[in-house]
Structure formats: C-alpha cells, structure tokens
Amino acid sequence: MTSKLRKKIAEDRLLHVMAAHSPLSAKLVEEAGFDGIWASGFELSALYGLPDLSFVSMTQHLDMVRAMSDQTPLPIIADIDTGYGNAINVTHAIAEYERAGAAAIVIEDKTFPKVSSLATTGRQELLRIEEFEGKIAAALASRRDPNFLVIARTEALIAGLGEAEALKRAAAYESAGADMILIHSKQKTPNEVESFVRAWSGHAPIVIVPTAYPEMNAARISALGKIRMVIYGNHAIRASVTAMKDVFARIRRDGGIHTVNKDIVSVEEIFRLQGMDRVRLVEKQFLR
C-alpha cells in the first residue's frame, strides 16, 4: 500500500481521501471509489463517545487501523495527532503503524494532549518548531519502508498565528524531511487556505481538510495547482449519526419499523459486507 499511495501522489491529479472509523465504514469508502482512507482520531473518539482530546489511546487507534487494513486494499493514512508524546514516543508509534498496515501518518505540531482543532473554544498550543522538527526526524529515522509517508500538519492557522507563521513552520517541516504538508484552518471560507497555498514556495505537496469551508470543491482545489490530497475528515461519523437519528426517531414516531424498513439497507446487504458468501463457500468445501 505504501508504494501505491506514493505513486498516486506523484501523479498530476487530486487524491480524495475519506474518513473511516471501523472496518465496515472502510469497506464503504472503498466501494464509493475514494483513493484512500483517513483513519480519523476524531471519528474514533466519537465512536467511543469521547471528546477529541487525546483520550483514545494509541493501542485503540492501532487496533482499528489494523482491522481496517485487514478488510480493504485501500491505503490508510493514520491520524496520530501529536504522536502520543515526544520524539521518543514517535519512534515507537511509527514502527507500530507500519506493522498495522498504514501507508502514511499525519502528525501535528500541537502540544500533548491536543484539543480538537475545530472546537470553538479551547487550548490550541503549538510546539516549538525545533521540537517538532525532531519529531519529524524521529519518524523518518524509524520507518522501515521508505515509501511510508510522513505528513506534517501545522496548526498555525488554527492557533490564530497567521499565514507568515504557517509558512515558516511548513518550510521548516519540509526541510526536516516531511513528505507532505497538511495546512489546517477553521475559517468558514477557503480564503485563508487559498492564500497560504498561493504563497507556498516549497516543493512538498499540500494536503487540506476542508471540513469548516465545504465550498472548497475539487475544481477550486485543482485550480491552485499545489494541493495533491483532500481529506474529508469526519463525514463518515456525521453521516452515520444523521442516519441513525433519523431512523430511530421514525421508529419511535411510527410505533414500529413498518414504514422505515423500506428505506434502510436489507439484512442481505449487511451479509454481503460481512463476507457471508465466502463463509458459504468454505462451508461447502470443508464441512463434512
């Protein structure tokens, strides 16, 4: 998967990566035709009913990455937040995520524990540039596969430090060896990110996560010419919650499942996603 993702990034096209929080949602990402899976820390936190405050452990996240990797051939980009500690923790994390089947990691320059970037209030503290450069160097030194991507995410815009600081950090992280730069913003329009991308003079491709500025569509992204990956960072869990709230409310309102049943997937479709056809083949071959 690592070489496949690196080759895709080298192509002159925009990669579309969808968030997932389970093997089932990862399969649906694959069937929808996306280029990769974002193993989202936000989505996994939400799945556990926890805030995105570094409460989910590396072991919990690794278990989910491993489970998703077992079910789909799509490359998985693992959201490892701040790397679960300092540069020493990062060396351990990289080895574990490679073994779990990830093709890339994204690590951000916040302090640990992090606060969700899109929270309206909360602490958004950044590491010193030199310390984060050390984390990037540790990640690069720890990877066994040279195709395994280390993507550096700067939260300078999230922290309100401005474009100049974001560009300074991005340049430093590229010099430290980062394969790609993820620039994040919580502004409601794409203007801040577009300005950063136009000003970016580095060679590392840019990654964006347009959750807060949804009008940043593929045509608008491609027009900038420097962005190689767009991550839809939390739409799987939001779609799941939307659908469940709607169905549950209708069942309560109607006093049963008699009207909603026609509007949800069949049990047979769940069987298909579970791989029951393979089970039947194994039964025919081996059960005697």
CATH topology of the largest domain, by name, is TIM Barrel
- What CATH architecture of the largest domain would you give? Alpha-Beta Barrel
Mean pLDDT: 96
Shape summary: globular
Query: Total number of helical segments?
Result: 12
Q: Structural class, from secondary structure content?
A: alpha/beta
Order of helices and strands: HEHEHHEHEHEHEHEHEHHH
**Low-confidence sequence ranges:** none
Q: Over all CA atoms, what is the radius of gyration?
A: 20 Å
Superfamily (CATH H level) name of the largest domain: Phosphoenolpyruvate-binding domains
Alpha carbon gap, first and last residue:
38 Å
CATH class of the largest domain: Alpha Beta
Largest sheet: 8 strands, parallel, barrel
Strand order of the largest sheet: 1-2-3-4-5-6-7-8
How much helical structure, as a percent, in the residues?
40-55%
Number of distinct beta strands: 8
Strand content: 5-15%
Explain what this protein looks like in three dimensions.
By secondary structure, this protein is an alpha/beta fold. The chain has 2 domains: 2-235, TIM Barrel (Alpha-Beta Barrel), CATH 3.20.20.60; 241-286, no CATH class. Helix content is 48%, strand content 13%. The chain has 12 helices and 8 strands. An 8-stranded parallel β-barrel has the order 1-2-3-4-5-6-7-8, surrounded by 10 helices. α4 (58-71) packs parallel to α5 (87-100). The longest helix is centred in the last third of the chain and has 20 residues, at 235-254. It starts with a helix and ends with a helix. The relative contact order is 0.12. The model has no long low-confidence stretch (mean pLDDT 96).
